[in-house]
Request: fold
Amino acid sequence: MTDDPRLTPLAASLPPTVPFVGPEELERRRGAPFRARLGANESVFGPSPRAVAAMAEAAAESWKYGDSTSHDLRMALAVHHGVPPDSIIVGEGIDGLLGTLVRLVVGPGTPVVTSRGAYPTFNYHVAGFGGALHAIPFTADHEDPERLVAKAREVDARLVYFSNPDNPMGTWHDTATIARMRDALPRGSLLILDEAYADFAPSEAIPPMTPDDTRVIRMRTFSKAYGLAGARVGYAIGPAPLIAAFERVRNHFGMTRVSQVGAQAALQDQDWLASVTAQVAEGRARLGRIASDLGLSSIPSAANFVAIDCGGDGALARAVLEELGERGVFVRMPGVSPLDRCIRVSCGTPADLDIVEETLGPALAAAAARR
Amino acid sequence: MTDDPRLTPLAASLPPTVPFVGPEELERRRGAPFRARLGANESVFGPSPRAVAAMAEAAAESWKYGDSTSHDLRMALAVHHGVPPDSIIVGEGIDGLLGTLVRLVVGPGTPVVTSRGAYPTFNYHVAGFGGALHAIPFTADHEDPERLVAKAREVDARLVYFSNPDNPMGTWHDTATIARMRDALPRGSLLILDEAYADFAPSEAIPPMTPDDTRVIRMRTFSKAYGLAGARVGYAIGPAPLIAAFERVRNHFGMTRVSQVGAQAALQDQDWLASVTAQVAEGRARLGRIASDLGLSSIPSAANFVAIDCGGDGALARAVLEELGERGVFVRMPGVSPLDRCIRVSCGTPADLDIVEETLGPALAAAAARR
Reply:
């Protein structure tokens, strides 16, 4: 039996592929741990020591279910962002929140617009609910607001996904551009503004919070600058009626107690956040230098990673990625042309970047020699 | 605007109610913490100290996403249960796994059978995907396998939910009864055997593991006897093709790093588990005595809670529950008649049960005086 006959037609139609193979699985396949873990845009600088201490202390309380409303964290976020608590929903990372949002809005054939090469997990959720995904190419390594809007109008999209700064290129648009995009979308369409990397971006990239605007939902996370990817804490900010609708389908007790406490402590330590983003900025600059020293260009990034142009096509970049992997360096790369001429390297510690500096040249040479 | 016009018709049709209001939310409403937290069948004895230590140590590693396959935990569970790893899926509690399973099997109108008064969160998921839920009354405070089978055959049910020991009454059936039920179900139906409370039950209640049997999926959790409700770790054991189908829709990186590590350490400490189940057995006996000392009967339980018959109807039990709440004791009660003549009290520490002993008589008297 290759499949279960009880699956719904939709479930039976879905591919068995997963959006991302995790680094632990890759390590098991290669039979050795990576020397530098720079493929998932995690924060190698770790979470705030205050968050670590709070989580360690909360571990003994794990016999209690977490607060199903993430009340204390949500109140702290409301203060932090200056928005009403009923405009915030906390969930199991942006991945989990995107899944719930897609479930609320997308059924078979529902038109959805995103960028070609943008976040695969969003596409996975849309496919998982049978939506019709329309993907617009990047333009000059940026998501293209005008073409996204045009497609949204053409297909009367219910959801339009836009990441700013974007993943996998790290480029960004300013608030005026985002406002124009929002204003030009068709009525009845919802702009998902994925701001997972907002904490690393210049202030010109971050619109003011306007949770009453029914046209936009913002996605934020503790997985990146706050260094808590493994704790699975994301949140969405949007119009209260839409946020309330999450209650109808979400896994109410899905947030762990330790994670709620950790995120709250991390939020309180803005000094740590500032220190991390400063180190990330240094890492971006150094990755640019490592690339240029090898005669390569890199894409100016507002995120905690840098896309390095390997100077060829997707096959060459794939070979570079594989050669880096054999040298113990875990990175990823964009999935579609022409973005896939690049590899995407997370901003590591100085020690991590020493390893990148030491291995990238040989990896490039070995990749070129394969041809 | 009272709703978001972009919701799917199904999402728009769902009620805003949630299956459970959590104890923290109840505490906020009453304006004071509970003295005894005995409403959610959590393990007041806590997790193994080895689990706590492992979680505290893992907190600093929370910058890394958790292993998306929960590989190490899954391997340990495979050894523990003597089943192949590909018959196990780890998820965000049984709640999360039930949601994913329902999503895989249930679409609008799909027939599903459960017991009236059984786990509300399962019903919530079925409603959330538009399934047609058929609920069979308990018989003599037990789920009724024969009537469940008869209804499953009548409606050609795709899913049949059966908890053993059951919640909210704590009663159980033996393996021969479960085997008869499984054998009598219609072809194309899947038996969900929810064994959240299996660790407290007599061995006669627990069938051997037969993961190749395509008719059954078993649900287990670290939330009850292992004392990790707040860590959200459940797992399902079933036929490999069905388990593989979870990969098509689940939130792959949804398991936190701390929780995976904690569950694995908890699993290794079977002495702690034995100590907890022994204390739970003492708690059950004492709750029975507390009830009988007040002239009340209680339902013999194979779980970590006892349903105490308040000797009247649902309104009386509801009043007793409220009076206990005013006295700082958090308990819950079944939602439907005639089960709702009872309150459901989790097995607390001796100090917790001292509080129950001290407050239950006055609460009964106050409830009776309301009439």
Observations:
- Chain A touches chain B through 91 residues (CB under 8 Å).
